[in-house]
Amino acid sequence: MTRLSSRIRCLCPVVVFSLLGCLITIRLYSITSQPFVPGAKIQMPNTYLSQFGELVDVEELEHPPLSKGQDTQTTSLVDEFLDKGSQIRSFFFPDKRNAIDPGEGSDRNYYYPGRIWLDTDGNPIQAHGGGILYDERSRRYYWYGEYKDGPTYRAPRKGVARVDVIGVGCYSSKDLWTWKNEGVVLKAEEKNETHDLHKSKVLERPKVIYNEKTRKYVMWMHIDDANYTKASVGIAISSSPTGPFVYLYSKSPHGFDSRDMTIFKDGDGIAYLFYSSLHNRQTHIGPLSKDYLDVTNSMTKVLVGQHREAHAVFKHQSNYYMITSGCSGWAPNEALVHVAESIMGPWEAIGNPCFGANKVFRVNTFFAQSTFVLPMPGGPPGSFVFMADRWKPDDLRDSRYLWLPLIVEEEAYQQLPLVSPIRPKVSIFWNAKWMIPYRGIRENSR
Question: Hey, where are the domains in the chain?
Fold first, then answer.
């Protein structure tokens, strides 16, 4: 009897785990066996996600046949993307006839990732590698980015595609869709060739935060020379979100080289600098001074040996998240999302967040690179807007913007492990056409 009881006890776990395995297999089969229909919506079997409505009904995507007759390998489609003579280039870069135009009301408030996006004057928005500031005082959003409205050419020594520095563009909006051009709020230096902002230098990835104590708007940016050997951060300051910003200085933070960078302001008012260092081999994180004009002596090294850049940092509940890109020049590559309980680390990579479209698009971050993550106005907790740049290295001013819904499924992973076994904890959902359904909530509540 004792032997029989022990055998039964031993068999119980086996039976339980076998049943669990069968349930998971059935769920995976029910999802993956659905026929592929280009443009069709994928229904997500997750009760937690139902609160996000159409944002998570992602689409399958089929790209046109390759113009060179190659097979459909990832590298082949990337080659087509980078080839300005490709017959399918317009698939990635639709012409102005398909632009997002606030002057026309037929598709008002809809985002079309990859299309030209016009401002209220009818000109393409120039805010590349940028970020968003919501200003409580003016109750407006401000979009800052690289103003690249100039010819693209190759830098003399390394042959890097570049545009002469024009400055930092600024656009204002009440709804995140209609953008007014506020001008170049930090302008290039035309004459002094030794100045950090001389047109021959590099100004990338500007981000702006507001300091409540000093009542100043503070801009941080990547400052470099044409061949990327200076590798520094630059700081500018203004009393108004629309500038003009006064450039203060550049420096090597914590004594290290700094390449792609971003800043993140936490809920307690402490701001942090994130930057790629040691030729992108690792990421450094450190708090800023109380006036946001310098770093402190505190710094931690994370993602060591991983060669990541294009950091986009955000917070949900008690966890911090960071989306990064690999280092492949202007070519797209696979994004990773990292999570940490403390902003100073340790940080853990939890996979590629891209969902929908097709495999080639997912492993190339929908042919774009991360730049910023914005809380979705009026949305449920865990809903964000992922902002990325689709770079066009032969004509950088014609680079495009990809804004897509991003959802953090912390609760789903804790409560529904059988329902969501194949989707990452943080998901960026591909939608060829979408809108923020909660946009009016913030406006109506004020």
Answer: 35-120+310-446, 125-306
